[in-house]
Amino acid sequence: MKSERELRSPFLGIALVAMGVISYEIILMRLFSIESYAAFGYMIISIALMGFGVSGTLITLFQTFFRRNLDWMLYISSLLVLPAVALAWRISLAIPFVPPNIIQDTRQVTYVAYYYLTLFVPFFFASFFIGLILVGYAKQVNKLYAFDLAGSGIGALLVLGAMFVVHPKYLLLIVLAMVFGGNVLCSGLVLKNHRTRLVSIAKLMVSLVVFASVSLYMATKAKLELDEYKDLRRAFFAQKVADTKILYESFSPLGLVQIVRNKLDRSAMDIHYMTPELPPVTHGLYVDGSRVAKVAKKLTPKEERYLDYVITSVPYRLVAAPRVLVIGLGGGGTVQEALHNGASKVVAIEADPQIVKLLRGPLASYNGNLLADPRVKVVIGEGRAFAETTKERFDLILLERGGGAGMSFSGTKSVGENYVFTVEALRSYLRALSIDGVLAVTQNIANDPDSNAGRIIPSLQAAMKQEYGDHDLGRRFLFVRGTNFGIAIVKRSGLDSQEIASLRRYVDKRNWTFSFFPGMKPEDVQKTMLEDRDYYNEIANAVFLASDRGASYIAHYMFDITPTYDDRPYYEAGFHYGNTIPWIRRKLPPNPGWRNIAQNFPPELWSYALLWITLAQALLFGFVIVLIPIVTHLVGRLVLLLRKGSGARKVASTLSPFLDPTGRSQTVTRGKLSTVIYFVCLGFGFLFMEMLLIQKFTLFLASPLYATSLVLAGILIFSGMGSMYCGRYKESPKIGIHIAVGAIALTSGIYALALDPILQMFLTLPQWSKIIISLALLGPISFFLGFPFPMAIGHLAEDRPTLVPWAWAINGATSVGAIVLATLLSIHFGFRVVFGIVSLVYLLALASFPGMEKRLVPSLYFLIPLAACVIVSLVFGFGLYIELISILGGAAAFTPAFLEAMAPSTEQ
After folding, report:
1. Is 562 within 8 Å of 512 (Cβ atoms)?
2. Segments of 276-350 assigned E as strands
3. How far apart are CA 638 and CA 137, in angstroms?
4. Percentage helix, strand, coil, to 5, in the chain?
5. Ordered DSSP codes for 689-701
6. What is the C-alpha separation between 888 and 897, in angstroms, rounded?
7. Which helix (H) or strand (E) holds 490?
């Protein structure tokens, strides 16, 4: 029995290594957003959890050896994290993974697996360290798990703060420092345990040398390797000709902002070829390697003439001396265009203060002190929040695809949340219009049917219907398109015949095309030589002029263009299971092969395909991780059947983690099934809730990275408190687990019903206030999320200790696929449904709590009808039922009748 002095080391060591793990996780997400694409957070979390699953399996197989050499294993595993971070980073840079090619190039699927196998190594060693501590000190599991979770939560906050002061390319050094601290505590200076001081000093010196060497290597080799498809990388392809150079740079958790000079950069939205003046060469604004806007440049009156020939000039023909609201300042180009068109006032909203600081500071002379113009007002904040709370009314509100810049929005198609174009958001913009005000939404478009640009039309129609009623909505709407951009325009008071005639002359003169305007006839529809039909015209006609068949048209459209809502804010998730593949097949010769279908798959849906590929690989890895101990156990049993004697028993016990040296089972057979079910449920339930809350708080905190870091910190710290507190129920685990699961199910249902309205109330508060509110909302459910895992591990440690590492492995392995599955379920069913699923999963965990297996079958009489209600709700879209089911299920967990039904027939 170790002394209290010796036990301090595992607590502090597990906390520091857990800090390193979560920091590594968040930093990889940050680096992915810069070097590749922003919405791959689910893949990084999945890779991290695979490390936990594999390490748990390894500990399960060789737990006798590891227990016997615990101190050395703790030291070696934590030490190996340091070079593993450096090697994984360098090797990952060499993997030729190009995400947009995932469908057409089958090799990319292999490269995804390479990412898993490469990046998981540091997570493996770190989680091996954590798993060893939980196994070696299993009777202290509630305190150890509390330190693990709290350390992770504090690490998430620390790395978020570090992103304000440390350049992204140096962030991985933070991970090394945290893990080094945990390793030092295991060097033997604290955990002496019969080791000499000389050995302890030698171990410490080795750690110092490894830490210094790896840190020096990473500091000197630090650089950002951008994907070949990133805009900044392409800008440097012609560096000698274009004289490309990064002029200014700023970084924060919101993004890496760079101002780039490129003498070939003349961008303008669908400018007419007859323009009397070409767009000037301007600097580009890049955020995380992607070009988000041009930087406004001081122009002469002659140079400004081109602004009358860009497609975004159309809405100014409907307003005179307008008060303009610009959602997303960008590089200031939209503000400059508004002033050119006679705006009397311009209010520009920008979520990233770095951009405003650059435009007002080093770029002020370049843009002619644009933001110092008395007509211009800049507001730091989120555009939607401003529109919902401002008392001012605007004659023109401008909303461009991508709004502001950087991590304000998810930035990656198909799988990222986009709260800018939900019906609730569009309705808030409509409410901020003056009586004759105009809302203009600019989108990238394609000549072929587009998987998401057409979605703006049904979304606007749904918002208009909520705001203006169902009468004559088509009279307020028009859609103009050029070659690459389309602009959807809503006028609150409606468009009269004179305005339409004037607009038609203006648009025709510049060779743009009307897809819809009030009173449009079939002969007015214009198509380019590359088109056989105008899909935007068809969509607008269906939703505005033929509401009886509009739903049918949308249901049979080749992509999912149904309106998006805050509960399902995946605007770019255009893949339709029943329509997309058949549409591709119709374009091809009879019996096309998979390769032909893949080559014609819409390129903008690549990240959706990657999500499914990642899920398949994650589930495969997870299944193998869980299965390995079972297979080795069966092989051991087979050896005993085929051969007799002490040699056979020794071989069998070596192969099977569940057999002792005499060949007898070390645990109760029926305990294995309940252990599997219980920890599978925890793996899914905890990660589902974690992913849900990250997605819900992305809108509130106006940044995916802010949301990820803060939600992880809140959940983990409060779960750590719950883990510490649940030690009070060590002698009565039944009561503790019922309280925890009941609270989780109840809170889950309440959050599904009330979280959105609560967050909406505080959307306009300063960021520090929103952080406090976020933590307050995360606290209750997170506290009880910390109960189930340590309570079960503690029970197993007393009754069936050989199952402890396997339970750790099952929990980690299940979580590998859970994080990806949560994203897919949210995309297709919405957040409320996933909240309901979380409740069901935890209720099933309650029924299979280790040591009370006889409850499992009786409880199915309760759980099966509950699950049936959820399925019916999914099929018929009765989202409200799921919240009610969650609340009722949680309440039932507290009732005596439920406890009696769940109780075993005999006392154990």
Report:
1. no
2. 284-287, 290-294, 323-327, 345-350
3. 33
4. 65, 10, 30
5. HHHHHHHHHHHHH
6. 13
7. strand 485-491
Contact 519, 472 (CB under 8 A): no
Which residue reads 């156990």 in tokens?
633
With 0-12 / 13-18 / 19 or more C-beta atoms within 10 angstroms meaning exposed / middle / buried, residue 875 is exposed
How far, in whole angstroms, is CA 252 from its chain's centroid? 18
**CA–CA distance, 441 with 722 (Å, rounded to integer):** 47
Residues 67-98 pLDDT 10s: 888 888 888 999 999 999 999 988 888 888 87
pLDDT digit string, tens, across residues 321-362: 999 999 999 899 999 999 999 999 999 999 899 999 999 999
**Per-residue model confidence (pLDDT) at position 281:** 85
**Contact in structure between 350 and 328 (CB atoms under 8 Å):** yes
If you average pLDDT over every residue of the chain, what do you get? 81
Structure-derived torsion over alpha carbons of residues 425, 431, 435, 441, reported in degrees to the nearest 10: -10
- Spatial contact of 49 and 687, defined as CB atoms under 8 Å apart: yes
- Give the integer Cα–Cα distance in Å for 563 and 456: 8
Q: What does the pLDDT read at residue 65? A: 84
- CB neighbour class for 846 (10 Å; exposed up to 12, middle 13-18, buried from 19): buried
Three state DSSP letters for 725-787: HHHHHCCCHHHHHHHHHHHHHHHHHHHHHHHHHHHHHCCCCCHHHHHHHHHHHHHHHHHHHCC
Handedness of CA 330, 332, 337, 343 (dihedral sign): positive
Assign 866 a pLDDT band (cuts: 50, 70, 90).
Answer: low
Q: Report the relative pairing of strands 290-294 and 284-287 from DSSP bridges.
A: antiparallel
State how far the Cα of 214 lies from the Cα of 207, in Å rounded to an integer: 11
Neighbours of 196 (CB within 10 A): 10
pLDDT above 60: residue 906: no
- Of all helices (H) and strands (E), which one includes residue 687? helix 670-701
What the block records as the tokens of 751 is 């959050």
Q: Which of 638, 628, 633, 637 is nearest to 656 (CA)?
A: 633
Q: Which of 156, 132, 153, 158 is nearest to 719 (CA)?
A: 153
Q: How far apart are CA 469 and CA 236, in angstroms?
A: 51
Query: In this model, does residue 408 exceed pLDDT 50?
Result: no
In one-letter notation, the amino acid at residue 252 is S
Residue 460 burial by CB count (10 A; 0-12/13-18/19+): exposed, middle or buried?
buried
Cα torsion 349, 355, 357, 359: sign: negative
Q: How many CB atoms lie within 10 A of CB 526?
A: 16
Distances (CA, A) of 283 to 36, 175, 331: 22, 35, 9
- Is residue 63 classed as helix, strand or coil in its secondary structure? helix
- Cα separations (Å) of 730 from 142, 521, 677, 861? 9, 76, 21, 28
Give the distance from CA 462 to its chain's centroid.
26
**Residue 469 one-letter amino acid:** G
Instruction: Look at the block and give the residue holding tokens 């800090």.
Output: 19
Mean pLDDT value of segment 742-760: 84
Domains of the chain in sequence order: 1-227 (1.20.1250), 324-556 (3.40.50.150), 607-666 (no CATH), 671-908 (1.20.1250)
